[in-house]
Design goal:
Layout (H helix, E strand, L loop, with lengths): L1 H21 L11 H4 L1 E8 L10 E9 L5 E8 L5 E10 L8 E5 L13 E8 L5 E5 L6 E5 L6 H13 L8 E2 L14
Antiparallel strand pairs: 1-2, 1-8, 1-9, 2-3, 3-4, 4-5, 5-6, 6-7, 7-8
Length: 191
């Protein structure tokens, strides 16, 4: 039984590994209802990255629809000293190919919006039917986030999300679980 489980796991991961080696971007969710996707998400795990280096836990992102069809992205996290770090950005559809799972996000000032390099890929790779959890990453597989509507998920769901990311060609060993207390991370007025 154990050998069969390993054989199935390896068979599932091999095509993704070959796709990654060939430089094929991961598949995105076939369609995303952005009106259901907006709202608050808790980061469950991520690849370590420089722009979240100060985050020690309680990573929360809130997406809000704007009148112009774009999405405000409000990222917050708790630093080691207990203070809250916040970054507010903007997301837009990445292309007009009909995929609303491929977004571009910018955290640079609006005056720099015309520069392509300030827009980063943000692909919704998978989202639960009930929009309770999602996997987000980049086409080059350098960035990955596991998100949930709740601050913690059962181990079984976490394992499922990790396996799904691995099947898409992401290195599961690089994932760093996020310490979450469930705090709302309110920011003082004027910040």
């Amino acid at each position: 039984m154990i050998r069969m489980t390993w054989a199935i796991l390896l068979a599932a991961l091999l095509p993704a590994t070959l796709a990654e080696a060939a430089g094929t971007p991961p598949a995105t969710a076939p369609s995303v209802d952005l009106s259901r996707y907006v709202g608050q998400w808790f980061e469950i795990a991520r690849y370590p990255n420089r722009f979240q280096a100060k985050c020690s836990g309680d990573v929360v992102v809130t997406y809000s629809r704007r009148d112009d069809g774009r999405i405000t992205v409000d990222n917050r996290c708790r630093r080691a000293d207990g203070s809250i770090d916040r970054a507010v950005g903007l997301a837009r559809l990445a292309s007009d190919d009909g995929s609303n799972a491929k977004l571009k996000v910018r955290f640079a000032p609006a005056a720099l919006s015309f520069l392509p390099m300030v827009w980063a890929d943000y692909w919704i790779l998978e989202v639960a039917d009930d929009y309770s959890h999602a996997i987000v990453g980049t086409p080059d597989r350098k960035y990955l986030w596991l998100l949930s509507r709740t601050p913690m998920v059962p181990e079984r769901l976490y394992a499922k999300l990790v396996a799904s990311a691995a099947a898409k060609g992401f290195d599961a060993a690089r994932l760093q679980p996020t310490a979450n207390s469930g705090d709302r991370l309110e920011v003082a007025s004027g910040e």
